[in-house]
Amino acid sequence: MKKTLLALAAVTAITALPTVSHAEDSPLSFNVSLTTDYRYRGISQTRLKPALQGGADYTLPGGFYVGTWLSTIKWIKDFGGGADVEWDIYGGYKGEISKELTYDVGFLTYQYPGHDLNPSPVTNEFYGALTFGPATIKYSHSVSNLFGFADSKNSGYLDLSASFDIGGGFTFAPHLGYQKVAHASDFSYTDYALAVSKDVSGFTLTGAIIGADTKTINGVKAYASPANGKDLGKAGLVLSVKKTF
C-alpha cells in the first residue's frame, strides 16, 4: 500500500477497486474521479457508460486502515433492481516482512442500497496481498454469494499487477486477473489491462485498455448487458481523471 498516489491511480484504473491513498502529513484523505467506464475485474458496471466515483480513507496507528468508496452503476437497474450506486466499505492491516516485501490483509463489503434483487448482489470478501518491489499478487475470497450469483459462496479472484515508472512522469501498470465463480464455471473468466497514468497539476490522468475473456453461452456472451445485449467485457479504452486531497 505504500505507493505513490500516481501508482495507486494506475492500479485503481485497472481494477476499479478502492485503494488507500494517503494525503501528505494527514491520516485522512479523500478522492474523487470521473471515468468513461467503471470496469471492475474487467466487466463494465455502467453498461460501457461514464461513472462518477469518490471515497475517503483513514490510516490508523500501527498499520491499520479503514475506508469507503462509492460509484454510480447501471447493472442493478438493468437486472430489474433499484440501486444506482455501489457503496464499498473496507478495513485492514498492512505491514512489512522486509524492506522490499510488504503485505496487506483485510475485509471488503460491496453494498447496493435499495437493490431489491434476489439473490442479493451484496458481496463480502476477505483479501490478502503481497507486494515485492513493483509487483503485487492479491487473492480475494468471497464469504457470501458473489454479486448475485446463486450458490456462489467461496468464489475467488486472483490478481497479478505491477507499477513501473517509465520516465517523463508516466507510470505504466499491467494487470492480469482470474475470477472463479463457484458452481457457475461458465461465468468464470480471465481479465486483463494495460494502463498509463500521469500527474498533471495535481490531477491523475489515466488511459487504460481493459477487457475480459468471457465465455459464450448459447451464442450469447456470459456477461452481456440485459439492457442492450452488449458484451460488458469487450476490450476497450477507458479514460479517467482523479483528484486526491
Descriptive notes:
It is a single chain. With 245 residues, this protein is mainly beta. Helices cover 6% and strands 53% of the residues. The strands form 3 sheets. It has a 12-stranded antiparallel barrel with strand order 1-4-5-6-7-8-9-10-12-13-14-17. Strands 2-3 form a two-stranded antiparallel sheet. The radius of gyration is 17 Å and the shape is globular. The N terminus is likely disordered.
Quickly describe the structure.
By secondary structure, the chain is mostly beta strands.
Explain the layout of strands and helices.
Blueprint: H1 5-15, E1 28-35, E2 39-40, E3 43-44, E4 51-59, E5 64-72, H2 75-78, E6 85-96, E7 101-111, E8 123-132, E9 135-142, E10 156-162, E11 164-167, E12 170-180, E13 189-200, E14 203-213, E15 216-217, E16 220-221, E17 236-244
Antiparallel strand pairs: 1-4, 1-17, 2-3, 4-5, 5-6, 6-7, 7-8, 8-9, 9-10, 10-12, 11-12, 12-13, 13-14, 14-17, 15-16
